[in-house]
Amino acid sequence: MLFTGLMVRLLGVILMIDARSPTGTTFQLIACQVLQGIGGGFASIAVQVSAQAAVAHIDVATVTAMVLLLTEVGNSVGSALAAGVWATYMPRELSKHVGGLPGVNQTLLDELFGSIMDITLYDEGDPIRVGAVLAYQDVMCVTSRKTRAER
Question: 91 with 113: CB under 8 angstroms?
Answer without folding.
Answer: yes
